[in-house]
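Final report, Chapter 2: Outcomes

The project's central promise was a pipeline that accepts a single protein chain and returns its three-dimensional structure in a standardized token representation, suitable for archiving and comparison. That pipeline is now operational. To close this chapter, we reproduce one record exactly as it appears in the project archive, with the input sequence first and the structure output second.
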Amino acid sequence: MDINVAMMAICIGAPLILMMFFMKPEGRILMFFLLMGFVACALSDIINVMLIENIEHYSDKTFTTYYAPIVEEIVKMVPILIYTIIKKNEIKDRVSIGMSIGVGFGVLENVFYMITNAAKISSIQWIFGRGFATGLMHAICTSIVAYMLGMAYKHRKIYITGTLAAFAMAVTYHSIYNIMIKTEYSNIILFMPIVTYAIIFYREHRNKIKNYIENKRQEKSA
């Protein structure tokens, strides 16, 4: 591999690390987990390359369906799992933290694919797919995991099963996307992460949205 993802993570991440010292604590936490997404992407690339070199009867479809989702979701879940255990049930903005890891992962992966597949980038669909679908898909998976782990920790008896359920859901979502994106339904599946994102966004901000709508109604009636 001519271009190393780990080297890209350092080059892009170094300025962001320096910028953290000028940020407020809340933003610093999200930036930290964004950088953890870079680390997860680099580690996933190393593991995936090792698997590709050692898998018998390798095929791109089999790898992207079964192996890649498992590897990537495990690596992305580790920082969330550690943070949940350390902070216990005091974690705030779990979804935002999970989203930050996924966004970091997706950003680095997109940059890598753009560099290594520069000659193949010839359609708006490819650009739209990488930016608003594939990259967002990683963020959706980690935000789901972060939310479910937080919920599971509040009920200690189901923490292990809750962790496994969160992991299984993320892998399933990831695998479905990888399978469908290479079929004749690829144009439709591109909207799956966007719709999921809209649902999560509404759930996280529904009170603000309702208050905004209510305020607008009162302004019109006044």
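Archive annotation: Helices lie at 5-20, 25-54, 60-87, 94-116, 124-154, 159-180, 186-189, 191-221.
This record, like all others produced under the grant, will remain available to the consortium after the project formally closes.
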